[in-house]
């Protein structure tokens, strides 16, 4: 199963336990293929570099220097063309949708209400982490 996992879910998977963490375990085990793009990885790098994550990174026994290269190694990178027309209010959300289309993803996993409210994009389900785990279990 191929999945585009939004930055907010990946960050949660790296820093906390719960459904996003289990999703990342599936990626590490090879039972879920993480598809990403240079733009999404750059967004992750910008977000995880914020000072507010310093303490959380230490508590979660990880570091930026470990997490970012691991994500680059785990992900299948694709440079998607932009969508023909905007779908979401946030262009970053449109980048996720464009990536899913280009990657022929089976799922888009997000915690973003704007994305989740779409429910699907061109037949690709947009689900939260718990729903993604249910799909993987099928």
From TrEMBL:
Taxonomic source organism: Candidatus Methylophosphatis roskildensis
NCBIfam families with a match to the protein in the record: putative toxin-antitoxin system toxin component, PIN family
Residue stretches making up the PIN domain: 1-117
Protein name, as recorded: Toxin-antitoxin system toxin component, PIN family
Superkingdom: Bacteria
